[in-house]
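Bumping with the actual sequence this time:
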Amino acid sequence: MRGITKYITEYLSSKVIFAIDMATSAISSVVVLMVLNMFSGSVAYTGRFIFWWLGGTVLFSSIAMAIFKTYNVIVRHATLKDIRKYVFAVLVANVLLGGLLVVIGSYDLVVLSALLANFFLTVMLVMTVRFLMVDIYGYFRSRINDIANKQRILVYGTSDKAVAAISRFCGSKHYQLIGFISNDRNEKNLQLAGYPILTYKVESDFKKIVESHSLHAVLFVTDSDVQAEESGLIRYCTRHNVKTLIIPSVDEVIGGKIMKGEIRQVKIEDLLGRPEIKISMDEIKADFKGKVIMVTGAAGSIGSELCRQLAGLGVKQLVLFDNAETPMHNLRLELEARFPQLDFVPVIGSVRHKDRLDFAFRNWKPQVVFHAAAYKHVPLMEENPCEAVFANVYGSRMVADKCVQYGVEMMVMISTDKAVNPTNIMGCSKRLAEIYVQSLGLALTKGEVQGKTKFVTTRFGNVLGSSGSVIPRFSEQIENGGPVTVTHPDITRFFMTIPEACRLVMEAATLSTGNQIFVFDMGKSVKIVDLAKRMIELAGLKVGEDIRIEYTGLRPGEKLYEEVLANTENTEPTSHDRIRIAKVREYSYQEALTAVEKLTAYSKAVDIPEMVRLMKTVVPEFKSMNSKFEEYDR
């Protein structure tokens, strides 16, 4: 790259310019001499005359150019004044040459004509050469600038997908493909699709590739490749300031986060992901196509992604219900742009507002309801417990009751892993919502309550990149120069991508026969401090030097480890290997209804002590942790 920069920034040597001018002058004189002999029909202009003609040209041209210093002119910045210098230099050289020819007695009218022709031809050639030099310089500077501004990139692997990625670089203004990179030594010195395969085994091999090829970036074509190289090539790239890029997945295109065909940098979400989960999209589409679907909490992280995915399933109408005005406005603009044929209705309202909820059900008569509206932030709900109960428990009851009243076919409630053996108000409020919804479904089955609605509950852990979650917060802290705050060095969490969670929610809906609580296999838990370190490294920074990590202590209601959702002791299998059915205690509908009504009354009256005591009575496994409500456990 330094060599390229040199050629597009430095000027040609004055010696080179002088040599070019001398060569141009000599060529002009030779051409004139040839024409002179061709048309004169005389032998007077051969032999001794040629010697003096050419020798004089070289001598006097060098003298004239030295006097006028034409070789010091920067060719690409030449002005009219500089052009006059060239003309005078050529004129002086020809006058001196004419004087020499007079002295040696070889001067006549024909020679005078030759001198005039030599003058004009030399001026024309010198100017032409200079204009060509400027044009050629401009062309190559443009080409070299293009190369210099492009990122030199290697595609990881030699699979069919890796080869197919080549098409993305055709005519690219940003990237220059230089080959493939592989950790298979058997592919050393081979070529693929006309590009070399560069191999490495250890970090020192990769370092040599970076230095010898001025490497800027490595492109991964699949999520599984990224995850396989999380502790290998990606760490090498981080340590040697090489970008790691990835072609966006189908989920991202569906999610509206990136334009199709673009390439983006590898994010922490890619490293935390798992191999693609197999989802029967045909069955899901068959279940929802042509139906009116309502999503509560439609403008939230999970709700908005559900809306995007449902929009592509051929639903008859999509009713968006949320009380957040600005996020709803943004979602509306996105859906209008991306799904112009979609019939959707944005409704501003709260699930705690019975009449507004009734208005939505009465006017649009949804056949399937996805209930994603909830308060979810643990510390905030620990500080505002009545609002947690009013929104999560009473709000869920309102939605469930309206589903029964208006003959909705199915209600799918989004719950959380924090409802399992809850240690905080938020987790217990979601467990109470589960209890009411499931008990209502059982009452319908037994004929205790009249209606046809099937109730499905889905539980999963933290979703990557959701609003207010740890990853966006860490990103912001890193951008601001740190510190990155972690509550405890040993705290761990389970993670799942938003599109993945939404697809599993829809899959669970197709599997349900009613009244089940489905739990998702969340994979392995992640140590939050390790996540923070990797995010700092992916930003090209060093932990402890550029960005420090600061421990702030567990927040109210927070625990070190979340419960494992899908083990064989507390769940039963389904036809999908990543979805299981939770074994939970069943409550009678009357018992659940009485509890919810009392909790609602306490929450409206802001009677926190009585409300929390009742929560712990109804959900005996609710044991507060790192919270002022621990006193009610004694």
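The tokens above came from a reply further down the thread. Confidence is low (pLDDT under 50) at residues 1-9, 250-261.
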